[in-house]
Amino acid sequence: MQRCQLSSRPLRVLLVLSLFSLPVMASAAEKDELALALRQLDQVQSALERAKIVAVQDKSDGRFFFDYERATRDLKTMKQGIETYLEPSRAQPRDKGSLVGQYRKEQP
C-alpha cells in the first residue's frame, strides 16, 4: 500500500502544476482569437470602403443610404477596445461613448 502512494505522488504534483498553467493557456488562446477578430475587422473596414466607392459611383436617389462614417467609427471603437485589452498601458478612464448600431440615414 505504501508503495502505491509513492508512485502516485509525481502524478499528483503534475496534476497540480497543470491546473496552474490552465489560465495561461486560455489567455494565449483568447489572445489568438482576439488577434483574429482584429484582422477580420480590418477586412470589414476594407469592404466598407469598397462599398462606399460603389455607392458614390451609383449615386442612388433613394431616401435612405448607409452611414459609412458611423460604421467606420464603430469599427475603430471596437478595434481600439480589443487592442487596449491585448496591450494595456495603464489604467485609464473608460470612454463613455458607445456603439450606435443604426447605420441607415435619410437623404436630406
From TrEMBL:
Keyword Cell membrane: no
Pfam families: Plasmid_RAQPRD
Region (Disordered): 84-108
Keywords, alphabetical: Signal
UniProt cross-references to InterPro entries, sorted A to Z: Uncharacterised_RAQPRD (IPR019110)
Biased composition (Basic and acidic residues): 92-108
Protein name: Integrative conjugative element protein, RAQPRD family
Natural source organism: Salmonella enterica subsp. enterica serovar Albany
